[in-house]
Amino acid sequence: MAAPLPFSESELCLLQVLLKHKVRFMVVGLSAATLQGAPVVTQDVDLWFEKLGELKISQALQEVGATYVPPSHLNPPMLAGAGAELFDIVICMDGLGAFADEFKNCVDIPLGRQKLKVLSLERILASNIAANRAKDKLTIPVLRDALAATQFVKRRTKKK
Amino acid sequence: MKNRVQPMDAAQAGRWARRLSARVSKVLAAYPEADRDNVRHTLILLEQPPLERLQRSLIRGRATAIFRK
């Protein structure tokens, strides 16, 4: 029997319900890069919220049987429950500006009738360069090449 | 989340591969420092819907994690 797909209806519903409740968040990290065509692998989907812990996040999550777990002692904040296992909460992004500034430059990815805000490939690359961890060093050249290819495709599409 | 790419016959696949190769060369002409494989994989992924790209990445990411254990 085939393994269930990692990103299924429940994960999709979780994102959609956050959008429906007008929660301001964006997808960041390598999952954001892969949504834009970068050939990288990832194990989770990183979400960056403008106001973590605001009431509408909890209300939205409750609708799909998930919940927000605030940080405690050594544990970072997290989402738990239906469709939440795949998502990680990011509390700071190296090399980037304030949430509101980065939000303006996000790429919109259609998600049903709504639009999912995704950190642009340029800004993901900037963040990885700033973070410069061992795993970032491996992905920086791939992100750079993916950015070159996507910019080329965008320019050609505009010309047409 | 359906794959939007239609199945191809051998002739169509050949044409697609030649078109892809030409596009890779054009990107490399504009960005000579870029890696051919990275560019090729990106162009292939750009033919897929965004959620399909994410799905593929997560499947491979999980497989890699299992392999490491």
Could you describe the 3D structure shown?
The complex is a heterodimer of chains A (160) and B (69). Helices cover 44% and strands 19% of the residues of chain A. Chain A has 160 residues and is an alpha+beta fold. Chain A has a three-stranded mixed β-sheet with strand order 1-2-5. A two-stranded antiparallel ribbon of chain A has the order 3-4. A two-stranded antiparallel sheet of chain A has the order 6-7. The longest helix of chain A has 26 residues, at 134-159. Chain A starts with 8 loop residues before the first helix and ends with a helix. The relative contact order of chain A is 0.18. Chain B is mostly helical and 69 residues long. Chain B has one domain (10-68). Helix content of chain B is 72%, strand content 0%. The model of chain B has no long low-confidence stretch (mean pLDDT 88). At the A-B interface, helix 2, strand 6 and helix 6 of A face helix 1, helix 2 and helix 3 of B.
SSE blueprint and pairings:
The complex is a heterodimer of chains A (160) and B (69).
Chain A: H1 9-20, E1 25-28, H2 29-35, E2 45-49, H3 55-63, E3 66-69, E4 78-81, E5 87-90, H4 99-104, E6 107-111, E7 114-118, H5 121-131, H6 134-159
Parallel strand pairs in A: 2-5
Antiparallel strand pairs in A: 1-2, 3-4, 6-7
Helix pairs in contact in A: 1-3, 5-6
Chain B: H1 10-30, H2 36-45, H3 50-68
Number of domains of chain B: 1
Structural class of chain A: alpha+beta
User: Given the structure, what is the number of helices of chain B?
Assistant: 3
Q: What name does the CATH topology of chain A carry?
A: Beta Polymerase, domain 2
Report, as a whole number of angstroms, the end-to-end distance of chain A: 45 Å
List low-pLDDT spans of chain B: none
Helices and strands of chain B: which structural class? mainly alpha
Order of helices and strands of chain B: HHH
Structural Rg of chain B: 15 Å
Strand count, sense and closure of the main sheet of chain B?
Answer: none
User: Strand order within the widest sheet of chain A?
Assistant: 1-2-5
State the shape of chain A: globular
Overall average residue pLDDT of chain A: 94
Q: How does the overall form of chain B come out from the CA principal axes?
A: globular
Number of helices in the DSSP assignment of chain A: 6
Number of strands of chain A: 7
Please tell me the overall pLDDT of chain B.
Answer: 88
**Beta-strand content bin of chain B:** under 5%
- Percent helix of chain B: over 70%
- Count of individual beta strands of chain B: 0
- What is the CATH level 1 assignment of chain A? Alpha Beta
